[in-house]
Design a protein that fits this description.
Number of helices: 7
Helix content: 40-55%
Distance between the termini: 68 Å
Order of helices and strands: HHHEHHEEHEEEHEE
C-alpha cells in the first residue's frame, strides 16, 4: 500500500495537473512518509486490539468451558438455569432437565488410572455434544467429576424421556479406548424431570431431577428414572418416579 501511495504522489509531481499546481518532490516525500507512519501506527493499533480480543476470548473460554470435555461448566449452568427458570414463568414454555452420572466411575479410575478416566469423560462429552446437536437451545454441562446436566428448553417430559433412553443406549453401546490395546464399555444412570408451574424456586426443580438420578442409582444403576407425576407429593416434595432400563 505504501508503494502504491508513493507512486501516486510521484505521478502527481511529474504530470503537473493544472488545478493542483506544481507539487515539489520534497512535498511528495513528506506525504509518502506521513502516510507510512500513519499506516504503521494504524496497523500496530489494530494488531494490539486483535491481540487483546483474542486474550479476552481465551479468558472467557477458560472461565466458561470445561477444558477436559469441552462442555459448559457449572458456573455457566447456574447462569443458564436461572435464565431458563425465569423464562418458563413468563412464557410457560416447557423446560426439561436431565441429571446424568457415569456408573462406577471411581472403579475405572482405581483399576485403569485417572488418565483412562479422563478419556472416558472426554468420550462422554463428545457423545453429549452430538446428542443435542439437532435440538434448538439444548445445552450440556459438566457439573461435577463424573456428573453432567442437560437442559432441554421447549421439550416435553415424554420427549426428554425418549431422548434420555436413546442417549443411554448410545453410551452403553459406545467403546472407549483407554490405552493403545484396551477398550472398555460403561453405563450411566439418569434422572429426568420437567419444570412445574408450582416450582416457586429453581432449587425445587433441580432437587427433583437429582432425586430421580439417585433413584436410578439406588435401583442398581444403568437406569433412567422419569418424574411422571405433574403434582408434587405433600410428604416428600417429589413426584412419583418411574424407573426403567432399556436393554
Amino acid at each position: 500500500m505504501n508503494i502504491i501511495v508513493g507512486v501516486f504522489w510521484l505521478l502527481l509531481h511529474y504530470i503537473r495537473l493544472d488545478y493542483l499546481g506544481d507539487i515539489p518532490l520534497s512535498q511528495v516525500v513528506y506525504y509518502w512518509i506521513a502516510f507510512g507512519v500513519m499506516n504503521f501506527f494504524l496497523y500496530y493499533g489494530l494488531t494490539q486490539l486483535n491481540t487483546e480480543n483474542d486474550y479476552l476470548n481465551t479468558l472467557t473460554h477458560q472461565a466458561t468451558i470445561d477444558p477436559l470435555t469441552q462442555l459448559k461448566n457449572y458456573a455457566v449452568f447456574k447462569t443458564d438455569f436461572t435464565k431458563k427458570f425465569g423464562e418458563f414463568h413468563s412464557s410457560k414454555k416447557p423446560l426439561a432437565m436431565i441429571a446424568l452420572d457415569i456408573d462406577y466411575f471411581k472403579r475405572v479410575n482405581d483399576q485403569y488410572g485417572h488418565l483412562a478416566g479422563n478419556k472416558i469423560l472426554i468420550g462422554v462429552g463428545k457423545l453429549l455434544i452430538g446428542a443435542v446437536h439437532d435440538l434448538p437451545d439444548a445445552h450440556c454441562y459438566r457439573v461435577g467429576g463424573e456428573e453432567f446436566n442437560v437442559l432441554l428448553p421447549n421439550i416435553s417430559l415424554e420427549q426428554a424421556s425418549q431422548f434420555s433412553h436413546d442417549l443411554q443406549a448410545k453410551i452403553r453401546q459406545a467403546t472407549f479406548q483407554i490405552s493403545e490395546n484396551q477398550n472398555i464399555k460403561i453405563t450411566v444412570s439418569m434422572g429426568v424431570s420437567t419444570l412445574h408451574a408450582s416450582d416457586k424456586t429453581q432449587n425445587l426443580f433441580y432437587e427433583r431431577t437429582d432425586q430421580m438420578l439417585y433413584h436410578s442409582k439406588g435401583e442398581g444403576r444403568d437406569h433412567v428414572t422419569v418424574d411422571t407425576e405433574l403434582t408434587k407429593s405433600s410428604t416428600t416434595g417429589f413426584g412419583n418416579p418411574v424407573s426403567s432400563t432399556q436393554n
